[in-house]
Amino acid sequence: MTVEIKTELFCLHCGEERVHTLTYLGKYLHQIKCEECGIQLQIDRLKIMESYAEDLLEEILAKPHQLLEEKKRLGLIRFLKSLPVRVVTKPYRVAREAIEIVKKKQQRPGK
Hints:
The chain has helices at 45-74, 76-103; strands at 2-11, 16-25, 28-34, 40-42. By secondary structure, it is an alpha+beta fold.
């Protein structure tokens, strides 16, 4: 999911604080754009993908513990009832997020 947030930051080009738009791909910062002068700073897409892969691996390794804790919290019957939907939807959500990061076209500064 792409999210844009407006905030005030010091612009190196303008030399003072200006409103900037921060664009996130999922939870990863992709671009910073000064609304006054239009200058853009972009994060290398390969770096975003590397961070995403690291986070995904950590999430996968933590999942057995999370499931065990959830089973304790919900009880066995409620936990087992929730599994079929989650088994189907989780890969879809992860794939959709990964595709968005991979497909996001890098724009040239000033456009």
